[in-house]
Structure formats: structure tokens, C-alpha cells
Amino acid sequence: MRASAGQGVAAGDIVLSVEDVSLGFGGVQALTGVSFDIRNGEIRAIIGPNGAGKTSMLNVINGFYHPQSGRITFKGKTRSKMRPYEAARGGIARTFQNVALFKGMTALDNIMAGRTLKMHRGVLWQILRVGPALAEEVEHRLKVEEIIDFLEIAHIRKIPVGRLPYGLQKRVELGRALAMEPNLLLLDEPMAGMNLEEKEDMSRFIIDVNNHFGTTIALIEHDMGVVMDLSDRVVVLDYGRKIADGTPDDVKRDQKVIDAYLGVGH
Amino acid sequence: MLGPILETLIGGLLTGVLYSLVALGFVLIFKASGVFNFAQGVMVLFAALSVARLSEFFPMPIAIALAVVVMIALAYAIEFLVLRRLVNQEGIILFMATLGVTYFLEGFGQTVWGSDIYKIDLGMPKNPIFVLESVFPGGLLIDPSELIAALICAIMVVALAIFFQVTRVGRALRAVADDHQAAQSVGIPLNQIWLMVWAVAGIVALVAGMMWGAKLGVQFSLSLVALKALPVLILGGFTSIPGAIVGGLIIGAGEKLAEVVLGPVLIRMFDLAGGGIENWFAYVLALMFLLVRPQGLFGEKIIERV
Ligand SMILES: Nc1ncnc2c1ncn2[C@@H]1O[C@H](COP(=O)(O)OP(=O)(O)OP(=O)(O)O)[C@@H](O)[C@H]1O
Ligand SMILES: [Mg+2]
Questions:
Q1: Quick one: average pLDDT of A107-115?
Q2: Cβ(B252)–Cβ(B235) under 8 Å?
Q3: Closest Cα partner for A186 from A163, A216, A156, A165?
Q4: What are the residues of chain A with a beta carbon less than 8 Å away from any beta carbon of chain B?
Q5: Do A189 and A220 touch, CB atoms closer than 8 A?
Q6: Do B20 and B248 form a contact (C-beta atoms < 8 A)?
Q7: Burial class (CB in 10 A: 0-12, 13-18, 19+), B239
Q8: How many helices (H) and strands (E) does chain A have?
Q9: Considering only CB atoms, which chain B residues are within 8 Å of A179?
């Protein structure tokens, strides 16, 4: 049994569930009546063709999008929408499909930004840079260095991220999310645009995070090989609707899924 | 010859500190939201008007304290009514919003405070002082009120530089400016950051407005001081606090020196009238900078991979 990171939630319990969520933008219906849940400690893949609504689903979960209808239950509390601050406070971290780093900052500062909610000392102490604030800064810095070592990016930590190659940017972005010590980690296509070796590294990090820290992960990924290898359960979206939900093997054999991916009739 | 030039230089530097302060207001907001806040100039005017009119009813220190409250309330209103509805919009949209705020505030200032010319009397000494009399015949003439104004500005500038370079605040600000959504995803409270920055920018505008207002009287043209801050920003870089300081000093001193040194040369060599150099010098300097070093003296070089 994995070490449980979810406060008061045992492994296998439901950490987050969405029920009947619908979201539209003007004429475009991004999500229609989608329901599924994420269990503590699992890697839950969300797949589907382009424009299926996968990213929109993550945006609903961490409060960037507010659905027109439906409910979201997180850590036992049900609401009609999440808010970004509330999601972050509750231990939801994420990465973005089109890497969203703080471009002007170094890799180290980007990851330090992930500690924002863990820092408590008042601004005055920070200005004086003495006493408790200094100790706090040092403590967080240590934590961040651990993450940097874990992701094997020590050599680039002082480089402004805008200058890094794409694959490393994605790794820094993962580092920033990990710095939040999340219970639930949302990864939007963490391997897109990577070469084989980079993909293997990223897969290894994801598995390690899940195993060692017991972090629950929701993963959007197009590479079916990766999805089948990594995930415990898979939910499949197509045109904003859920068309399948189950183990990788079940989903792989599902006729609706095969049709969706082959672009057969709608 | 050296004496008068030094005198001009000192006078220019003292004015330059005021430019720095106005430019600093721009930099703060730009740093925290990537928005060029067109309203900064009118905030200077609005703040000065508030102090001038309030000081008719209250003693000066209370008038100033009340004006601080007014500027904070203004920041709150702007955050609540405008910014919070525009999260994650393009920079140009936020810029347009500040244009709207500018013209609203310009009119609203008149509605509330009136449109005459008002005075701010900070009770500063008026008689010029002479320094270094042993080195230069007759000494160097310095206006003490300008000196005090420059000192106050310098203190403000240093305090702000420290406040915004501090590890956590500085990091949060840069994060918000770089990417609203990413900043929110790590739990940085966007609204609070914006409120804080606009409040500080309002207080900076207040100090700048009081200093200029005491010097020139409080009237509409005060909002044009902001136009002088533009070349300062181009020189110093839009994101750099030290840049705003150095840029202000260079422009302040440069334009006065140009008037005194370049003017006579133009008259002698080309038989021109020679005046008005102070009016265009800053802009020409800024244009030249744009061609050679668009990120400014201290601005971060724009690096982006596509
Ligand atoms: N902010 C928005 N405004 C308007 N339409 C949007 C917005 N966000 C998403 N959409 C639309 O919603 C639909 C689902 O988009 P979404 O990005 O969620 O798909 P996706 O499954 O992540 O696709 P991909 O695999 O290409 O990333 C698309 O038609 C998209 O154009
Ligand atoms: Mg997507």
C-alpha cells in the first residue's frame, strides 16, 4: 500500500469527482454532462482526439473555467465551481499544455514560486532578510534543491527558462508543480513534443512521483503506449462527451474508442 | 564656465529625481501585470488635486493622510471594477482599460475637486542657498525646496526598490507579470497583488504630484509630466527600478545641459533660434536608445523561443 498524501483520505478513496459537468463557450460545447472520479493514489489518464475537451476538464478542476452546470467534489466538499486559489490551497498543482513558465526567471526561481503558499513569514521580515524569514527562505530552498536533484536539472537551475530547450522547460514546469507538494497533480500532455529519450525520462519521473510521494495524478497524453504503461484507469472524451471509462485494457478494446480514434461516423 | 555648468547639472539632477519617481509608478505596475498604465499621469494629477483641495479644510499632514486613503480607495476600485474582469487577457486589452481609466479619472477629478489652478504649500524654504563658495567664485546656487523634494523622492525610490526586490514579493510580482494563469496555479492571489501594486503606484503618484504641484501649481498640465516619464522608461527599461532612477537622472540633467551647452552652439553655427531644446531633447535621446538598445539600460533582454 502506498503512503497516502491525501489528508484524511485513504488510498483508493475518491479524492475528486466531477458530476454531469457541462461547459460551453458561445457556440462551442467543450464539455457535455461529463462525470468521472479520481481515486487517491492512482494515475488517471484522460484521453481523446484533438478538441475533445481534455484541457477544458483540467481547467474546470483547478478553477480556471467555471462550468455552466454540474458539481465538483474535492476532498469531500461539493461545489458548483472551483476557484484557482482554492484549488492551489487544497493541494491541486498542474502543468500546462503549452508550457506556462515565468519566462524571465531562472529555473530555480520558477520552482521556488511553487513554494508560495508554504511561505508564511511577513513581508517585513522578508525585507530585513533576518531571523525567521531567512531561515524560512533557506528551508524552502533546501526543499527545492531536492526537487531539482530528483528531476536531474541541477546544471540548468540558474538559467532563465526562456533559454532552455522545450523538453527541459517541461521538466522545470513539473518541478514547480512538485514544489507545491500537491495531493493531486494535473499534467496536460507532459510529453508532447519530446523525443523518445525525453519521454522515457518523463515517464520515469511520473511513476516515481506517484510511487514515492503517493501523489495522485491526472494525466492527459496522446501517446497511447505511455498511457497504457502508466495509468491505472483511463477516461475517454470525444466531442466533449465521455465515451469510455475503465482500465487501459478495457478501453483499448472498446469499439466506441476505436471508432473515435479512427474518425468513424458521428 | 565650470561653475554655471555644474549649477545646471545639479538643477537638472534634482528635477530628474522627480522624473524618476513618476517613471517608477509606471515600472511598478508594468512589473506586476505587464501592463503599460496610461493612467499613471492622471493619477499624479488626481493625487495632487486631492491634497490641494483637502488642505483647504485640514492641516497639511491630515490632508496628505486623507489623500493616501483616497489613492488606496482608487486602487481598490480599479482592481474591483476593471482588472479582476480582465484576468488572462492580452496586454493590449489591459492597456485599453487603463486608457478608459485615464479619461474617466481626468473628468472625475474635475467633478469632485474642480478645475481651477490650486496651490500646495508644503512650507518649504524658498531662499536659494549657495554652496562651495571657496571653490567657485560666488558659489553654486541651489534651490533648497528642490533639494528637499529630491531627498524625499530618493528615500521613496530606495524604499520601493527594497520592497519590490525582496525575495517573495519580488518573485510573486514577476510571476504575475509573466503569466497570470501560471501564477494563479501556484496559489499567488492575483487580486491582492494587483491591489497592492496599484495602491503603491497611487502613493508614488501622490508624492510626485505633491512635489510637482508645490513647484508648478496644481493644474491639468500636471498630468503631462507623465509624458516625460516615457523617455525615462525607454532609457531605463520598463521593468527596471534602478533603470527608472538612472533614466530620470540622465534625462533631467541631460535636457538642462543640452539647453545650456547645445543651445549656444546651434545659435553660433547655424544661426538658429536655439531655444526649446529642453522640450525635445528627452524624446530624441529616447528614440536613439530605441534603435540601439530597445530593452533600455537595465531592462531584461527579451528572449523567447517559438
Ligand atoms: N477559452 C476558450 N474559449 C473558447 N473556446 C474554447 C476555450 N477553451 C477551449 N475551447 C474549445 O473547447 C473545445 C475543447 O478544447 P480543449 O482544449 O479542452 O480540447 P483538448 O481535448 O484539450 O484538445 P487538444 O488535444 O488539442 O489539446 C475546443 O473546441 C476548443 O476550441
Ligand atoms: Mg488540450
A1: 93
A2: no
A3: A216
A4: 62, 64, 84-85, 88-89, 93-94, 96, 100-105, 109, 112-114, 116-117, 119, 123, 126-127, 129, 137, 160, 162-163, 165-166, 176-177, 179-180
A5: yes
A6: yes
A7: buried
A8: 10, 10
A9: 186
Q: Which residue has the cell 483499448?
A: A252
Question: What distance in Å separates the CA atoms of residue B153 and residue B148, rounded to the nearest whole number?
Answer: 9
Domain architecture of chain A: domains with CATH: 1-91+182-266 (3.40.50.300), 100-180 (no CATH)
One DSSP character per residue, B62-88 reads HHHHHHHHHHHHHHHHHHHHTGGGGTT
Residue A56, SS3? helix
| Beta carbons within 10 angstroms of residue B137's beta carbon | 7
Over residues B88-140, the pLDDT tens digits come to 778 788 889 999 999 999 999 989 988 888 888 887 777 777 777 777 777 77
Tens digit of pLDDT for each residue in B18-56? 888 888 888 888 877 778 888 988 999 999 999 999 999
Give dist(CA A232, CA B52) in Å, integer. Answer: 69
Give me the pLDDT at residue B304, please.
Answer: 42
Distance CA B79, CA A182 (A): 30
Cβ distance B211 to B221 under 8 Å? no
- The arithmetic mean of pLDDT across residues B70-75, rounded, is 94
pLDDT of residue A4: 42
- CA quadruple B23, B25, B30, B35: dihedral sign: negative
Helix extents (H) in chain B:
2-33, 40-54, 60-81, 91-113, 144-165, 167-178, 180-185, 190-216, 225-236, 241-257, 263-270, 277-292
Distance of alpha carbon B147 from alpha carbon B165, whole angstroms? 27
- Residues forming a β-bridge with A184: A92, A216
Hey, how many other C-beta atoms are within 10 angstroms of the C-beta on A29? Answer: 15
Side chain identity, residue B108: F
Q: Whose CA is nearest to atom 30 of ligand 1?
A: A51
**Per-domain boundaries in chain B:** 2-292
Decide if A169 contacts A106 (C-beta within 8 A): no
- With the most atoms of ligand 1 within 8 angstroms of its CB, the residue from A25, A62, A222 to mutate is A25
Record the cell numbers describing residue A46, joined without a space.
484522460
Q: What's the confidence (pLDDT) of residue A156?
A: 94
C-alpha cell of A83?
476557484
Domain B2-292 has CATH 1.10.3470: yes
What is the rounded distance in angstroms from the CA atom of residue A127 to the CA atom of residue A129? 5
> How many angstroms does the Cα of residue A169 sit away from the middle of ligand 2?
18
**How far off is chain B from A259, nearest CA to CA, in Å?**
35
Q: What is the ipTM of this complex?
A: 0.87
| Contact criterion met (CB < 8 Å) for A113 and B186 | yes
Asked whether the beta carbons of A117 and B187 are under 8 A apart, the reply is: yes
Of the pLDDT bands very low, low, confident and very high (cuts 50, 70, 90), residue B296 is: confident
Cβ of A162 within 8 Å of Cβ of B305? The answer is yes
User: Of B163, B174, B182, which is closest to A127 when you measure between CB atoms?
Assistant: B163
Residues near B43 by beta carbon (within 8 Å), at least 6 away in sequence: B25, B71, B74, B105, B201, B202, B205, B209
pLDDT of residue B305: 40
